Inverse folding.
């Protein structure tokens, strides 16, 4: 069955060797820093090994600049034989410039969404600096992707609370499609409540393997949330094959299986 990875990135050395990921290196036991950039061919091979037909590869922008720039993502996409699609990043500190850059990324580079990681900025999604970008996403017809839940890297976790932040943004921008990555743990129940409340709010499972999905999320996915949850990995932190290893233990029926792995992302991102 085909798979779409809704949250991944092909890293640069500026990204993968950043000190904020020291906590992840400690958890995974991979303490060494990378000396050479990861070839795009390796990312393509990792995705193909798990039958991933599309990986949504994102840029990363923070207060100190681009860790993975939009143009670098466009270059990775061009080398991927159609497997990668671009997700834009933006510099929140310069909102007018950020809107222009988002328009360029969508209209000229063919990117399919915007992603901003709130903890990287120390600003929750309700901060006024986000709001011009939300309006631009609505006008451009692309989803806004963001992180919910605690922060594994060395950054504040408060910005990842679904309530009040995602709830308020969805109230202020009812036409905005919002995709919330990383499940929302330990506020998974909040995240499900927000997705139930707002027709355009979705959840992706990135940063978790299938056997680590919270019970509340699995029950939601099996039932009323079957059209609201989509698969993601957070590659290269987790390989797609690792993330999918225990998927059969979730007891999903065939329709839910297809929606979760590809159908929901195909619809939401207009792939």
């Amino acid at each position: 069955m085909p798979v779409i990875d809704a949250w991944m990135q092909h890293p640069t050395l500026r990204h993968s060797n950043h000190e904020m990921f020291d906590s992840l290196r400690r958890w995974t036991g991979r303490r060494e820093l990378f000396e050479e950039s990861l070839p795009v061919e390796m990312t393509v091979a990792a995705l193909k090994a798990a039958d991933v037909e599309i990986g949504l590869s994102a840029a990363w922008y923070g207060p100190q600049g681009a860790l993975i720039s939009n143009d670098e993502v466009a270059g990775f996409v061009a080398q991927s034989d159609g497997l990668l699609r671009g997700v834009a990043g933006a510099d929140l500190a310069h909102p007018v410039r950020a809107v222009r850059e988002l328009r360029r990324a969508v209209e000229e580079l063919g990117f399919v969404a915007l992603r901003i990681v709130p903890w990287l900025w120390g600003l929750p999604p309700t901060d006024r600096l986000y709001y011009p970008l939300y309006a631009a996403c609505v006008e451009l017809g692309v989803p806004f992707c963001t992180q919910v839940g605690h922060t594994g890297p060395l950054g504040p976790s408060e910005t990842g609370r679904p309530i009040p932040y995602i709830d308020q943004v969805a109230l202020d921008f009812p036409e905005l499609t919002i995709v919330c990555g990383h499940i929302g743990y330990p506020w998974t129940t909040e995240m499900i409540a927000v997705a139930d409340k707002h027709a355009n709010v979705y959840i992706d499972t990135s940063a978790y393997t299938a056997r680590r999905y919270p019970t509340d999320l699995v029950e939601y996915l099996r039932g009323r949330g079957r059209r609201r949850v989509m698969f993601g990995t957070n590659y290269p932190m987790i390989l797609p094959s690792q993330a999918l290893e225990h998927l059969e233990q979730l007891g999903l029926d065939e329709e839910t299986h297809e929606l979760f792995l590809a159908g929901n992302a195909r619809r939401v991102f207009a792939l």
